[in-house]
Amino acid sequence: MNKYSTQLKNLTVTFIVYLALTIGLSVLLNVAWQLTIDMSNMTPELFEAAVAQSNFIEIGSALIGVFSAVFCGAFIVKRSGYQSVKPALFFAVLLMFYGLLSALLHPEQVMIQKVSSLIMPFPLALLGAKLAMMLNKDAKLKAEPTASVS
Question: pTM for the full model?
Answer without folding.
Answer: 0.84
